[in-house]
Amino acid sequence: MININFKVNGEDRSVEVDENLRLLDLLRDELKLTGTKEGCGEGECGACTVIMDGETVNSCMVMAFQAEGSEIVTIEGLEKDGQLDPVQQAYLDVGAVQCGFCIPGMVLSTKALLDKNEDPTEEEIKEGLSGNLCRCTGYSKMSKATQIAKEYREEEAKWN
Ligand code: FES
Ligand code: FES
């Protein structure tokens, strides 16, 4: 077992992990952050996306011990004081959600994209979400949600 110290959704965590445990399993099974989904388990679908030190990673492809010293954001960490994150709100408002399985990963990839690039082009949005597969909603709704999220974030910045 390996002891790791890291931050999840702003909270310091110290846990003992098996050296073969994936970050995905640590989040879901041990920390009960089940918003992170397992799809393919092979780094192909993006359902398990989380943000690690500002970058999106497929948590099925990261070993838990690699999280040592890192700062991780999962879908549970986006809402603040009962308020959805602008990206979550935008996905809801444009109806970019059907079965919802891909949505936690999709929302986190959208957030990571906008954190790095406040005004992405259509092409950059496509590229930014290319690691996340959705089998039911369709890319144009995701793109629209990203554009709306950008506007919500601009509005929010004016008030803060
Ligand atoms: S479950 Fe990790 S990429 Fe599909
Ligand atoms: S909403 Fe069903 S997979 Fe994306």
End-to-end separation in angstroms reads 44 Å
Mean residue pLDDT: 96
**Largest sheet descriptor:** 5 strands, mixed
What are the bound molecules?
Answer: FE2/S2 (inorganic) cluster
Count of helices? 5
Query: How do the strands of the widest beta sheet line up side by side?
Result: 2-1-5-3-4
- Taken from the alpha-carbon principal axes, the silhouette is globular
Structural class by sheet pairing and helices: alpha+beta
Evaluate the radius of gyration: 16 Å
Strand content: 15-25%
Main attributes of the structure:
single chain, 36% helix
Helices and strands in order, then pairings?
Blueprint: E1 2-8, E2 11-17, H1 23-30, E3 49-52, E4 55-58, E5 71-73, H2 86-93, H3 103-116, H4 122-128, H5 139-159
The protein binds FE2/S2 (inorganic) cluster (2 copies).
Structural features, described:
This protein has 5 helices and 5 strands; from the N terminus they run E-E-H-E-E-E-H-H-H-H. With 160 residues, it is α+β, with helices and mostly antiparallel strands. The model has no long low-confidence stretch (mean pLDDT 96). The radius of gyration is 16 Å and the shape is globular. A 5-stranded mixed β-sheet has the order 2-1-5-3-4, with helices on one face. Strand 1 (2-8) and strand 2 form a beta hairpin. The longest helix is centred in the last third of the chain and has 21 residues, at 139-159. Residues 38-41, 43-48, 58, 60 line the site of one FE2/S2 (inorganic) cluster.
